[in-house]
Amino acid sequence: MTEPIHALVIAAHPDDAEFGAAGTVAVWTSEGRRVVYVVCTSGEKGTNDRAVAPADLARAREQEQRDAAAVLGVAEVIHLRYPDQGLEDTTGFRKELVREIRRWRPHIVVTSDPYRRYLWHRDHRVVGQVVLDAVFPFARDHLAYPDLLEAGLEPHKVAEVWCFGAEDVNHRVDVTATFERKVEALLQHRSQVAAMGIPDLPGRLRRFCREMAAGSEFELAEAYHRVVAPP
Question: Global pTM?
Answer without folding.
Answer: 0.96
